Amino acid sequence: MTGPLIVARCGDLQNAPESTLPAFEGAIAKGADVIEFDVHATRDGALVVHHDYYLGRTSDGSGAVGDHTLEQLSALDAGAWFGPQFAGERIPTLSQVLDLGRGRVRFEIDLRAPDPVFLQQVLDRITRVGVMEDVELTSEHVPLLCSARQAEPQICVGLFFRPPPGWMALPLAQQHAMGWMVVFGAQVAHLHRSLVDARFVAALQAGGYRVHASNLNLAPDVGLGIEAGIDQLSTDRLELALSIRG
Fold first, then answer.
1. Which of 51, 158, 170, 204 has its CA 20 to 30 Å from the CA of residue 57?
2. Backbone dihedral angles phi then psi of residue 52, each to the nearest 5 degrees
3. Which residues, including other chains, have CB under 8 Å from residue 168's CB and lie 6 or more apart?
4. Which of 187, 229, 227 lies closest to 207 in space, CA to CA?
């Protein structure tokens, strides 16, 4: 394989319902290097994989994921909305997804609960399954990532960087992003495509950081990231990204 790692967001979205075991299996079978997914804590302390904070868009439930028990979530249909052949597909647990991909693919895990008990549960599960070296943690809850590094120095963490506001010039936005990487001790910089250029990518890599271009779903954007020398990219269009890299 040459070129950046391809990260499949929520699995193979074109051919299976997102964030389900068939979607992750499909992404792995097609050649994704990494599968990305979001983890929530249930009301009774279990760990489940689901993209949204709320049920309803990709299941027949309603309300916040965290307000339900594992038993309640396991009774929901997470596949019929995509197609009748997936009727009865369930919301998977973190253990099920890790077991599916162990030894076959890497994992990007987005932490959705800003809670230290939840964080420790996730770290314990990663350790128990034996995939610590194949995991990267991300989260909008940045302090949680700092806690993750303190609790488990071996864990890899990535920071998200959004498009800069209109008043901020690109070089200043890139300077700030570099500073945040240093301050937080992260390993992977997740850049919006507006921040991606060859000079900045090279500067991050020279500092020992991996560069991830986020959510590249159009052919020109995938090409831009590859030309800039990024290390990995995430996409909803796995087959497109794989074909361009190839």
1. 158
2. -85, 160
3. none
4. 187
φ/ψ (deg, to 5) at 235: -155, 155
CATH of the domain at 137: 3.20.20.190
- DSSP E strand boundaries for 31-151: 34-41, 47-49, 106-111, 135-138
Segment 227-245, tens digit of pLDDT: 999 999 999 999 999 999 9
Residue 1 in this model has a pLDDT that exceeds 90: no
* 142-151 helix and 170-184 helix, angle to the nearest 10 degrees: 30
Helix (H) or strand (E) holding 233: strand 232-235
The domain of 117 spans 5-245
How far CA 153 is from CA of 82, 103, 143, 173, 233, in Å, comes to 40, 22, 15, 28, 25
C-alpha dihedral, 131 to 134 to 140 to 142, nearest 10°: 90
Nearest in space to 91 (alpha carbons), one of 51, 131, 135, 139: 51
How many domains does one find in the chain? 1
For tokens 């993750």, the residue is 148
